[in-house]
Amino acid sequence: MEIAYALKHPVNLSLRLQVRGFTVLLGESGVGKTSLLKALAGLIPAQGEPFAGLPPERRPVGYLPQHLALFPHLRAWQNVAFSLAHLPSVQRKVQALAYLDQMGMAELAERYPREMSGGQQQRVALARALARRPQILLLDEPTSALDGATREEVFGGVIERLRALGIPTLAASHDQWLAQRADWVGVLTRQGLVQQGPPEVVFTQPATLEVARLVGLRNLWPGRIALLGEGWAQVDSSLGLLKAPRPAWAATGQPVWVGIRPEEVFTDAGENRLRGQVQSLRRQGLRLRGKLMVGAVGLEFLLPRYKEALLGLTEGQWLEVALEPRYLHLIPAEAA
Amino acid sequence: MSDPVFWQTLRLTLEVSLVTTLILLALGIPLSWVLAHKRFWGKRLLESVVLLPLTLPPTVLGFYLLLLLGQNGPIAQTLGFTWAFRFEGLVVGSVLFSLPFALNGYREAFRALEPDLIQTARTLGAGWQRVWLEVILPLTWPGILSATLLAFAHTLGEFGVVLMVGGSIPGKTQMVSIYIYDQVQALQFERASEAAAVLLGVSLGLVYLVRTLEDLWRSRMPSSTR
Q1: Are residues A127 and A230 in the same domain?
Q2: For residue A336, what pLDDT is reported?
Q3: Looking at residue A296, which CATH number applies to its domain?
Q4: Residue A62 and residue A164 in one domain
Q5: What is the domain extent for residue A273?
Q6: What's the gap in Å between the CA of A12 and the closest CA on chain B?
C-alpha cells in the first residue's frame, strides 16, 4: 500500500510512503508523525490517497492514539462491540469476544479499562480497531507506555499477531527498538520523509546525517574521498585513510561523513586498523560501552562482556580496533 | 406555614426555576460545546456577553429587561406582546441571570473529556449522534447534572432581576426571596423565618447533591485512571 498525503495544519507536510507489513514511521516529536496518522484517519483536513475526502466514520482504518482512548465507562468487550454497531446485539457480544480472543484478551472481557495494565489496554484497543475490519492499522507511539523490560515481551507478541493477520500497519514512533523489528521503515524529519527502506538498510546506510543520528549511528567524523576503486572508496578522514564501500554518488574530492555503529567496531584483526586510548567504560546491560580516543576523535564501541575479560579492559589503556570496511558508511557532507 | 400566599409563592418559584433550568439545558449544552471546542471570530465577545450577569448588578439586568419587555418596549412595538410582570418575563430574566453558572459547569464537563475519545469513536464508525449518545453524555452527565442543579438553586434564590422584571405581584410574580423581604418589612418575622428555613433546606440539599455528583464525575474521567 502506498500513502501519498499532503497536509498544511498543524504541520506543513507532504510525503509518499510505502506501507509494507509492519511499517514504522520513525521521527522525533514535532515532525508531524501524529498529524499524518490523524490525517489518514480523517481527523484533520488533508489531501491524498487512499481514503481521500471520506469522513472518519467511513474510512476503513483502525486508529490507536498514543493513550489508546478506551472508553472508560465501558467494559473491554463493550469497547470492542462499539465497532460492531451494524450487528444485532446478540452477535455483537459474540463477535467482540472473538476479536478479544484473537488478541489473547478473552479472559479480561468483563473488566473496565482502569482495571487493566497498559499492555492489556493496548491489546483491547487493538481488538476494537481490528473489529472495524480495517485496511490499515494506525498506531501512534505504541511502545511509549511500555518500559524497556516488558517491551519485547508485550509488544513483540503484538507485532507477531499483526503479521499473522496480514494487516498493513503504520506505527509512528521515535523508538529505535520498534523500528528495528519492522518490515519497512520511513524516516520523517523537518525536511519531510528523507528515507524509507527495510530496517537493515536504514539502520546501516542512513541517507543523511540526521537519519544517522536518529537510527543510532553514533560514530560520525568528517573526511574527503581520496580515491575511487572498483566497489570501494578510499577516504582521507580525521581518523586517517580508511577503506569503505563505494556509494553510487561518490566522486573524488567530495566531502563526506564517515560513520560506523558502536556495535560494529571490532577488536579482532581486520582492515582499517586504528589505535587509541580507552577514555571511558560503562556497563550497558550485559554489554560494555566505551569510548576510544583516536587523536582528537572519540569512537564509541559496544563489546560483549567476554571481550572485556579477554582483553582485560581498563580505562586509560591503549587498544587497537578494526573498522571493517563493509560496516563503514559514507554520507555526502552537503546532506547535512 | 399558615400563610396560603407562601405556598403559592413557593410553587411559582419552583415552576420558574424548573422552566428556566430546562431552557438552560437546551440552550447551554450546544452553546458551551461550541465555546469549549470551536474557535471563531467574535468568540471572546460572545463569552463576555453570556458571562456578564456574573458582574452586572441584578437590578441593572432587570432594568434593561423591563425596558425591553415592557409595554412601550421594542418587543411590544414590533412583535406585539408584553412579558414584563408575567411568568414569561420571570423566566427570561432567570435564564439570562443563571446562564453563566450553567455554561461554566457544562464547559468544564466538556473540557475534561479527552478529545481522543471523541475522535477515536468516530474512527470506529460512529456518527455524531452515536458519539453524543454513547460517549459524550455517558461520560459528562454528572457534570452536566451538577451544573444544572446549581443553576436551579441559583434561580430559586433570585431577587433583583425578578423584582425589577416581575414587580413582586403576590400569587402572580412574587418569588420566595422577595416574599421573605416583604414579610420582614411587614414585621412578620415568623412567616419570614419559616420561608427562610424552607429555602435553606432546599439549597443545602441541592448543593450537597452537586458535590456528590462532582465526586462521581471525577471518578469517571479517564484522566484520573491514566
Answers
A1: no
A2: 43
A3: 2.40.50.100
A4: yes
A5: 217-335
A6: 21
Same domain? For A124 and A176 the reply is yes
B121 contacts A72? CB cut-off 8 A: no
Question: What is the Cα–Cα distance from A275 to A277, expressed in whole angstroms?
Answer: 7
Q: Which three cell numbers stand for residue A94?
A: 459474540
Amino acid at A136: I
Q: What CATH number does residue A119 fall under?
A: 3.40.50.300
Residue in the block written with cell 432546599:
B202
Same domain as A231, residue A204? no
* B221 in A contact zone (CB under 8 Å): yes
Cell (9 digits) for B29 = 449544552
Nearest CA in chain B to A139: B120
Record: contact B123-A59, CB cut-off 8 A: yes
A143 contacts A175 by C-beta, under 8 angstroms: yes
One domain, residues A114 and A133: yes
Last residue of one domain, picked from the residues A156, A176, A208: A208
> Whole-angstrom Cα distance, residue B107 to residue B215?
17
The CA angle A180-A201-A19, to the nearest 5 degrees, is: 65
- What is the Cα–Cα distance from A259 to A277, expressed in whole angstroms? 19
Distance from CA of B142 to the nearest CA of A (A): 13
Q: What is the mean pLDDT of each run of 10 residues along chain A (336 residues)?
A: 88 89 90 91 89 89 92 93 89 92 90 90 93 93 79 84 90 90 92 90 88 87 89 89 89 90 84 89 86 89 85 86 90 70
Q: Which three cell numbers stand for residue A168?
A: 498493513
Query: What is the tally of structural domains in chain A?
Result: 2
Helix (H) or strand (E) holding B7: helix B4-37
Residue of chain B nearest A57, judged by CA positions: B125
pLDDT tens digits for A75-88? 999 999 999 988 88
B180 Cβ contact partners less than 8 Å away, ≥ 6 residues apart? B192, B195, B196, B199
Q: A59 vs B135: CB contact, 8 Å cut-off?
A: no
Q: Which domains does chain B have, with CATH numbers?
A: 4-221 (1.10.3720.10)
For residue A150, the distance in angstroms to the closest alpha carbon of chain B comes to 18
Residues 90-149 in A contacting B (C-alpha not used; CB under 8 Å): 113-114, 128-129, 132
- Among A153, A186, A208, the domain boundary falls at A208
| Interface mutation vs chain B, best among A67, A116, A138, most B CBs within 10 Å | A67
